[in-house]
Automatic annotation (TrEMBL):
Name recorded for this polypeptide: Extracellular solute-binding protein
Top-level taxon of origin: Bacteria
Source organism per UniProt: Paenibacillus chartarius
One Pfam family hit: SBP_bac_1
Gene3D superfamilies on file: Periplasmic binding protein-like II (3.40.190.10)
PANTHER family on file: ARABINOSE-BINDING PROTEIN-RELATED, DIACETYLCHITOBIOSE BINDING PROTEIN DASA
Amino acid sequence: MKPEPWEKALKTDVPYASRRAEAAARSVMQHIKAGSRSHPAPSRWYAAAAALGAAIWAGSYADWTSAGKLFGILQPQPAAESVDMNVTLKLSIGDERLYRDMFGDQLKKRFPSLKIEFSDISTYEKGNYSFDAFEQMTEEQKPDLIISSSAIQYRLLAEHGKLLPLDGLEQPDKIAAVVNALRMPDGKSYGIATEFDGRAIFYNKKLFDQYKVPYPTDRMTWKQVMELAKRFPAEGNPGKKIFGFHEMYIPMFPASYLVGMIAHTHGLSYVDDSRKKAAMDSTAWNEALHLALDAYREGRVHPAKSYTIQNNRIEQADQQAMDLFAQGRAAMALDTIGAISRLKGSGIDYGIVTAPVDPSNPDINTQLIPGSILSVNPNSPNLRQAMEVLRYISQDDTDPRAYQNGVTSNMLPIPVHESTLLTIYGDRLKPFYAQQEPDWRRTVYSYDPTMDIQISKSISSIVDEETDAAAAGKQSVEEAQRSMQTRIQAVLDAPQ
């Protein structure tokens, strides 16, 4: 049976490094090119971010045979006596191998009488990933356990009443930023995530010392980050020079990529809440555009669209070529937790501080990415059994000894229990989860189910064209801003 695209998106844990890199990179390109309803083109970074995290982690799992190793470090517990687990639970995935890799072996040990079946997804094949198709599948197939591949999918399912509130399941020791990210505005949680990823600023201490620049600090704004980047020399051949700021995929994307990062942090959107008015004529947008486009114009970041991949596939060689921080050619880089693994053996003495913050909302964690989220269907006939599965998966029986190799060679999936993290990694991961407030703002990265996909694509194309022209010095930032405002408004006003 051919897997659905949404099923493929769930497979973020490819057993072997090369296959993991290939699958994640392919996912980046597919999401960006598709411009699907689940991740409209103006929101494409969020789709890329999940795949990006997987791609960056590509070399981190080489010693693992499957992502199920995360659950392999959960110590088997006595079988539950209060709940009869001699039932069949259906999962919202169509791949037995994926289930086994995620937690199947451990559930079999814990609940030997439990049987698992999988949703029949073949009739929902619709080409590009579609949230509507996934929701339809949950309604018609009625899986007992629903696995959301992203926070966006999880939140929409919860808003539509498709997930059961999980009262009292979360434990105090869990990282507050992850727990809060899954807590809906009604104060309830509807799912659990056993691992997470995020992004933070890595900085090269040697380069900062060499150019007598003060080290970055936690909770800097993008303005402060770019001011530090300006203190490094901007001259030289792009193939050899040092860049003040970097993000691995900047060379591959249009200038709108960095613009989007900054705009998202600042809580900006291309259109207002009515979805009828362009919203790019503000002072806040002008500052965000200047921060990004001036960095391109002044050579503080790598030129946009300057690295070409072959056959729409990002190979490991591509990732290594674009990873300027690991090459010692970037003073700062916004990167995921997986960078810690990639930097082992590089000889680079680095520090980590939090990702840039929204100056008006510095406690919001704008970069946290929960792992796959497991929830219960409120219409399940096996609610007690489904809840028992979640309760088992949610507990913290992690054996730090299982992470011994992860500390010295390869990063493992990052568990959500803070005491475990501190035992294994000390406090070096704190910058990734120090900000505890969830990001519920509507920004350029938000999925908007009310926005027509063709309008979203048109807006994305406009932003790409105008920001590329400004980054190349063909027009001023103000000219680009005025043009985007006018052109986006024309798209919104056009008859549908």
